[in-house]
Amino acid sequence: MFDRLLIAVDGSDCARRAAKYGLELAVRYDADADVVAVYGGDAAAGEAILEEIVTMADDAGVPVETDLLSGKPAKSIVDRATDRGADLVVVGRRGRSGVRERLLGSITERVLRRSGPPVLTVPEGDIDDDTGTTYENVLVTTDGSDLAADAGPYAAEVAGRFEAVLHVLNAVDVQAEAGVFDAGGVDREYVERLESRGEKAIDDLLAALDTTDLDVREAVIRGHAPDVIADYVDDNGVDLVVMSSEGQSNLAGQQLGTVAGRVLRTVDRPVLVVTED
User: Fold this and answer.
1) Which domain, by its residues, includes 113?
2) pLDDT tens digits for 211-223?
3) Which end of the chain is more exposed for a tag (fewer CB within 10 A), N or C?
4) Which pTM does this prediction carry?
């Protein structure tokens, strides 16, 4: 599934942590890895950033190819991923404050909007020898849409590769479905229909996967989708969230910046976002 990764770095601690996650995936999948930095005007600084990641890659036993790119960061990253045939882009969720824009909401979000391959976004945090080496609980969210279903194989693949529990979650957002002024007046039958629809979304996603050797946990939970996801992540020790960038209803998010954007801003775990080609 992951044969070539493109890892984008900018010298920030968050990007270093993202690189560690990407390199460990490359180890696990025996994948090729490209490491790029986008810098304008200071090639020496960019080369120093790349050399730091090369050292990290050497420690992990991963041969990498590096390149210093110019131009608009998001476009340069996505264009390079396309040119190299990358099937996963890895980025940090925050960047160097004061050097360029903070990544989330700017560069990372633009990469997510432009990218064909999925994007693994990694939050800030400590870096140690175990960073990115284990996943014990993998969560995939679904709302029944085709794009949300496309996230399933990625979650199942990582869960199987790391012998992790696969969690499949649907959020029943009554307020979003009924409207803010009608949510308080919906009857139990209406809510049950929403819950049944959520259960069907989970069943449909799982039906398309080979889960023979997976420990699968299913959950349909009522509440505001981003809050449901965040609480589920904390309550179940989730190590990786897999979700789509868009969807037909509120779980996968109507656009990046709604549910997907909220999850990226509030969940302090890596999030693998499956984008729409």
Assistant:
1) 4-122
2) 999 999 999 999 9
3) C
4) 0.90
